[in-house]
Specification:
With 359 residues, this protein is of the alpha+beta class. The chain has a domain of 218 residues: Thrombin, subunit H (Beta Barrel), CATH 2.40.10.120. It has a 6-stranded antiparallel β-barrel with strand order 1-4-5-8-7-6. A 6-stranded antiparallel β-barrel has the order 9-10-11-14-13-12. The longest helix has 23 residues.
Length: 359
């Protein structure tokens, strides 16, 4: 059976918009031979229209255009950042480079500094570090109380000092229990910021009442915590302490060598705080008390000036570390003053005195 051919009733106009001639017939779908024109394939009109002269051209990269539209903000930001980096790099490349320093330039700068500026003394810096932890210790006892000495030595005139000046505040003496007098004067150093102080045993030995003075001038009674006769050490604790009381930094005497610089800080004859400078003159020394009652061992020997009142004070390195507690001076005469040899208990022994090793 012959298949029926379907024709479209719509009239088509040429692509150029001209009117077909009248002789073309009423059926523009037929070819000149009377046979119907083949039907156009789907999408053929679109492709033909795209290829036709004067028609709009389709985009070649639709995905790229969509990506650019979707991320336009980020692309602008990245472009601006890249421009900023390029501008910065260009600016840095145009800057003159500093000349390389030679050793001669460094030596000349150091020499100029030494010639025109006074550098602070190392001993002064070390003393300044430990000074807030330094205390003056006074022991009070009954008049004529025995001090454990074979012969009574002349006592210097009673003078009270506050940071190098006479203490004019007589009201402070009213806090001392009645009937007691000052029997010993020495120094101490704060080793725990709760008011724990390390001093010499002979400073507080036999005292009925102990009073300490801190770096800011405030005073407080102190109680005896423990004694260690083998090292001539005593631990006392103040009842009232200043705000932000610092503890001294403890250092190891095992790293000391003869010839290293040290300072002794304390209250010789009640004057202070006083600072004396010297060197370590020996290690592992022994000292026997004048009465022969006690032998101290493993001491640090030093030549920084120390006198009565320095006992219990710190021996400090140039870094401000306390490596010893000044405990004795050697003088073969009865003068009891310094002639060039002092001894200090090592801070390792001091750490054991408070029940803990400091290292």
């Amino acid at each position: 059976m012959r298949r029926q051919v379907l024709y479209s009733a719509a009239r088509r106009s040429p692509a150029d918009g001209s009117i077909p001639p009248a002789g073309a017939g009423a059926r523009p779908d037929r070819a000149q031979g009377g046979s119907p024109a083949p039907a156009a394939a789907p999408g053929a009109d679109d492709s033909a229209a795209a290829r036709a002269p004067g028609s709009a051209r389709a985009p070649r990269w639709p995905r790229l255009r969509a990506f650019r539209t979707r991320h336009a903000g980020w692309l602008r930001f990245l472009g601006g950042a890249a421009c900023a980096v390029l501008i910065g790099a260009a600016y840095l490349s145009w800057q003159p480079r500093p000349p390389a320093l030679a050793q001669e330039d460094i030596d000349a700068a150091v020499l100029h500094t030494l010639e025109h500026k006074s550098l602070p003394a190392r001993a002064a810096k070390a003393a300044e570090i430990v000074r807030p932890s330094l205390v003056r210790v006074r022991g009070y006892g009954e008049p004529g109380a025995a001090r454990g000495k074979a012969k009574a030595k002349p006592k210097p005139p009673a003078r009270k000092f506050h940071h190098g000046a006479p203490d004019q505040d007589a009201a402070k003496d009213k806090s001392i229990p009645e009937g007691l007098e000052e029997m010993a004067l020495g120094s101490g150093v704060v080793i725990v910021d709760d008011g724990t102080i390390l001093t010499n045993l002979h400073v507080v030995y036999g005292a009925k009442y102990v009073r300490v003075t801190f770096y800011d001038g405030s005073e407080s009674p102190a109680e005896l915590v423990s004694v260690h006769p083998e090292n001539d050490l005593a631990v006392i604790k103040a009842q009232k302490i200043p705000d932000d009381l610092p503890a001294a930094t403890l250092g190891s005497a095992s790293r000391l060598k003869p010839g290293e610089e040290v300072v002794a800080v304390g209250f010789p004859f009640g004057i202070g705080p006083s600072v004396s400078w010297g060197v370590v003159s020996g290690l592992e020394r022994e000292f026997r008390s004048p009465e022969g009652e006690r032998v101290l061992t493993r001491l640090i020997q030093f030549d920084a000036a120390a006198n009565p009142g320095n006992s219990g004070g710190p021996l400090v390195t140039m870094q401000g570390d306390v490596v010893g507690i000044v405990t004795a001076i050697l003088n073969p005469t009865e003068a009891g003053t310094f002639i060039g040899i002092g001894f200090a208990v090592t801070i390792a022994a001091a750490g054991r005195a408070v029940g803990m090793h400091p290292f």
